[in-house]
Amino acid sequence: MTEYVETVDIAVDPQLLFDYLADVANLPRYMPRLSRAEEAGDGAVSVTAAPRLADGSRVEVEGTAWTRVDAPGRTFSWGSVGGRHGYRGSFDIDAHEGGSSLTVRIMSERADADSVRAGLRDVLASIKRLTEGGTTT
């Protein structure tokens, strides 16, 4: 399984950023390929996504994910339930001068590393744009 890691500095209070990212209702706002996310109880989340296939097309898929919130450590983790790629990830938020340092980690058996890295960059850019624009307040 391969781990992918990206970090970005965001000019937002670390606790506000964590609260925003850990709220399941916000997932479709900052994850471009996710169109729906609803809590299903006991940390489970029902999701609808439109991932890009190797040929560039998109297909809509529904599934269930798990989530875990570690408020004292400001870590929000998630993963697929029964997924094909052993997919899981986390956001770790640390205080940084002027705001927060956000690190995203993805573990996946998926072979298309370029696509995974591009997806990480898309998500981090989306989070930075939304949160620095005042969405968390």
TrEMBL record:
One of the Pfam families matching this protein, by short name: Polyketide_cyc2
InterPro entries registered for this protein in UniProt: Polyketide_cyclase/dehydratase, START-like_dom_sf
UniProt superkingdom: Bacteria
Protein name: Coenzyme Q-binding protein COQ10 START domain-containing protein
Organism, as annotated: Mobilicoccus pelagius NBRC 104925
